[in-house]
Write a structure and sequence with these properties.
The protein has about 450 residues and is of the alpha+beta class. It has helices at about 5-20, 25-50, 55, 60-75, 75-95, 100-120, 125-145, 150-155, 170-200, 205-230, 240-250, 255-270, 310-315, 340-355, 390-405, 430, and strands at about 160, 165, 275-280, 285-290, 295-300, 305-310, 315-320, 325-335, 365-370, 375-385. Residues about 430-438 have low confidence and may be disordered.
Length: about 450
């Protein structure tokens, strides 16, 4: 379709519209439509204000509750479509069909909008719902007024050649719509598969995360390939762009690719997995999530450290729960030389053994490590089952040691300082007679 044909089509549409506007039946139909719209809006507001969907549909199945909620939101549209249908039937009975064409079009448009809103109610994102509903309604409206084929032809008449690819506005719209639907379906399927994989007890957490990420990437690639093939685009036309992307990856996306590959390595070798207690540099906490670019480490105080995957591959990582969750805790303390070291070791081991958080599988041990200048130094070691509570158990044991030492009259050494003044103290008068002071 060239420019002359488009101009002739617009002139023809203008002539037909002008013929309709000059007819008195047009204004009568327009008045009926405005009256029905106002009445539908008022009745819809009244119904929505007096009907609570939560209490009205209580006990219904979830699909029926969603349907009821959508119907209540579009009560005005339902009433408007019914009024237009009744007015159309009445006009057909009283006069020629051509004199009620506008009423039939309005009823069809309202019914199309209602069907579209019901169909898009399965989508959770409200913004996507509105975009999809508006686009679908525009297509339905063009089809109802009989202009869809002309609009499609006009959108396909303007083109830009990119190599062997003929790029048109119609092709862009098709790719956008089909790609959005395909990616949404891929996300729904990936979420379903993720739930199924998460319920499998035969797979380790790291393997579950790896499978979920591979499934997501595979479904996205399949969705894009299917959309491109369905609209008639040969993927070979993107060879130039793929080469440019490869060069960009080589120079500008090195860190992103390194983190992505490192994430796959971490998931494959199972060195870290969700739930492990790790220390990376100055950051310590439990791994809460493993993503494509980073892992999330929850510190336990509300903070979360986002550590790049590359750091876990190239730096030293302390995994407290790699092979065994049992962790050795060491407590050092001192006593003076008046205490019996054997009694001190016995008290320390008994206190550690009676602490609830200390595991009973491995008995505590206390050693005399040094005869220091200020007193004797001891080292108490015991095992706990959960390394995340290490500081709390250590504090609990030390408080119990302090109570036991007080009860057994065992003193903890502390530094003592003596100050000696050679030559005796200065008289008070000498201090007051210093020159320059009054």
């Amino acid at each position: 379709m060239d420019l002359n044909e488009i101009t002739e089509m617009l002139h023809g549409a203008a002539r037909s519209v002008g013929a309709e506007v000059t007819s008195p039946w047009f204004y009568m139909q327009f008045g009926i439509i405005l009256t029905a719209a106002g009445l539908a809006f008022a009745l819809g507001s009244l119904v929505r204000s007096n009907v609570d969907p939560g209490s009205f549909a209580m006990g219904w199945p979830v699909p029926l509750r969603i349907l009821m909620r959508v119907l209540l939101r579009n009560t005005a549209t339902i009433i408007f479509a019914l009024l237009m249908t009744v007015a159309r039937v009445a006009m057909l009975a009283l006069t020629w069909p051509s004199r009620s064409y506008l009423l039939g079009t309005a009823a069809s448009l309202a019914l199309a909008w209602l069907i579209i809103r019901l169909a898009t109610s399965i989508i959770r994102n409200e913004f996507i719902v509105r975009v999809v509903a508006l686009f679908a309604w525009i297509v339905a409206a063009l089809s109802i007024v009989g202009q869809l084929d002309r609009v499609v032809t006009a959108l396909d008449s303007v083109s830009i050649m990119l190599g062997s690819l003929r790029l048109t506005p119609l092709l862009v719209l098709k790719v956008t719509v089909f790609l959005g639907v395909a990616l949404w379906l891929a996300r729904v399927v990936s979420n379903f598969i993720e739930i199924r994989i998460g319920r499998s007890h035969d797979l380790t957490p790291s393997i579950q995360v790896l499978l979920i990420k591979l499934v997501r990437v595979l479904l996205m690639v399949v969705a894009v390939a299917v959309v491109m093939a369905s609209v008639g685009i040969d993927l070979s036309v993107f060879a130039f762009f793929s080469g440019a992307v490869g060069v960009g990856v080589g120079f500008g996306l090195q860190k992103i690719i390194a983190n992505f590959i490192s994430g796959i390595i971490l998931l494959a070798d199972k060195s870290v997995k969700p739930g492990d207690l790790v220390t990376v540099g100055d950051s310590s906490g439990r791994i809460s999530a493993m993503n494509t670019r980073y892992i999330s480490v929850a510190a336990g105080d509300g903070r979360e450290f986002l550590i790049p995957n590359e750091d876990l591959v190239t730096q030293k990582v302390v995994n407290w729960t790699y092979t065994d969750k049992n962790t050795l805790v060491k407590v050092t303390f001192s006593t003076n030389y008046d205490a019996d070291p054997k009694k001190v070791c016995r008290l320390a081991t008994e206190i550690a053994a009676n602490t609830p958080s200390v595991t009973k599988l491995k008995p505590p041990n206390c050693l005399l490590t040094e005869f220091a200048e200020a007193g004797m130094k001891f080292s108490l070691t015991f095992w706990i089952a959960d390394p995340s509570g290490m500081d709390g158990v250590r504090s609990e044991v030390m408080l119990a040691l302090w109570d036991a030492f007080k009860r057994e009259n065992i003193r903890v050494p502390y530094p003592v300082r003596e100050i000696r003044v050679r030559g005796g103290a200065l008289p008070v008068e000498a201090v007051l007679d210093v020159p320059g002071q009054s």
